[in-house]
# Entry
Amino acid sequence: MLETNESRYFLPDQEWLIPSSIGYREAMAGIVWVRLLTYFGEQHEVRGNFGHLRQYLIAVTSLDPYFYRAYTWGSVAAIYNGTVIDRPAVEFSIEMLQRGLRRFPNDGDLHYYLGFQYYFELHQLVEGAEREQVRQIGLDELCTAAILGGGPPYLPLLCSSIAERQGMDHIAEERLSQALLEAQDDWARTRIETRLEELMTPDAAYAIIRRIADFRLRWEREMPYAPIGLYVLTGTRPLVPQDNDVTLPLPMDEMLAAELEEVYLRLGDEDMESEEPEDDMPDLETDSGAPADEVSRPEGTGVPLSRTTTP
# Structure
């Protein structure tokens, strides 16, 4: 059986590692990361106690605070490593996720992992009023993850079911409405709409679904290149007047096409006004019967053809 000596994996604190990287902090973080994976594998093989796991993870994220994988992987490895799941392990997992959210505050998956640890792990290790507080924090994080598009597709339904069981129907309806606005696929939208119809009266559910559908249509028409959350903040585009005095918000390509069409029409009207009637045009055949291509034209523009033939 493989034997691992913990002393072989001694690692200095980040206070020493950062100066020793001589400016190449990301490169140093990568070296420590590879060493961490080797250490974790050997400890798992010999059923070790992972005594240096915390030190390695803190070192990696201190050297490179934007090492995203270290936060997600570290939060899982801190708990699900074959050892007993106790409160210090869960709290360290939560600490890693909170460190990650300070760098990636709008990451849905980090919020999902954090809510999972609070709601499904930590609440089993606390008692009394703290237990209810932990569950509420977990529910809030899970709902935030659902709004940001993190976690599995069924997460919005899970959040509404938890809120409904706790007697918070209004929160369940609010979270479902927000999730319906952010839903990325038809399957999730259909399930959320069905859940809304179960929680609310048919008229109220239809009104919410209709408003959200109309809003998504405006977003797809006006700003499909941006996240819908950004469109919620910016609102509709400025109104562009039309020929019939009806103003409608138009996408950029339609606005440009409308402007070009107006320019072409204006230029066409000017050309028609400057053009003389066909009956008043001089006869292009000369008195001597010379063809039109032999008729001389003085230099310059706007001068009519002369009746003088070329020699």
